[in-house]
Design a protein that fits this description.
Blueprint (H helix, E strand, L loop, with lengths): L2 E7 L2 H13 L5 E6 L17 E8 L3 H9 L9 H29 L1
Antiparallel strand pairs: 1-3, 2-3
Length: 111
């Protein structure tokens, strides 16, 4: 089965809601996390929007037009609030900071 992208969302909740709507119309759909920095899905906190990726709705190529027409009724998804972008980056820094501090401390101890 060839799949096509019916829509893109920045928020997982919006993507899953749209997927549920399409499923209610008997359109097969799956949500795919598209990371732009190679971060795995498990590192994206629940309800915090990842600054590095988005979510795509994939439908069979044969249902693409019907899915896009159904989603057009709801309009375009709202843009990602800027505060969520910054919060996402802060969380990434918080995840990486202990590793960097430990690495720097080990370099200092070995000298």
């Amino acid at each position: 089965m060839i799949e096509a992208i019916a829509a893109r969302y920045e928020d997982e909740l919006e993507a899953e809601t749209a997927a549920g709507y399409l499923r209610s119309m008997d359109i097969e759909v799956r949500v795919r996390f598209q990371a732009s920095l190679g971060l795995p899905r498990s590192t994206v906190p629940i309800r915090v929007i990842a600054p590095t990726g988005g979510f795509e709705l994939l439908v069979p190529d044969t249902d693409l037009e019907r899915a896009r027409d159904a989603l057009a009724f709801a309009g375009r998804p709202p843009p990602r609030p800027q505060r969520y972008r910054w919060l996402g980056w802060v969380l990434i820094v918080v995840l990486v900071a202990p590793l960097l501090i430990n690495w720097i401390a080990s370099l200092i101890r070995t000298r």
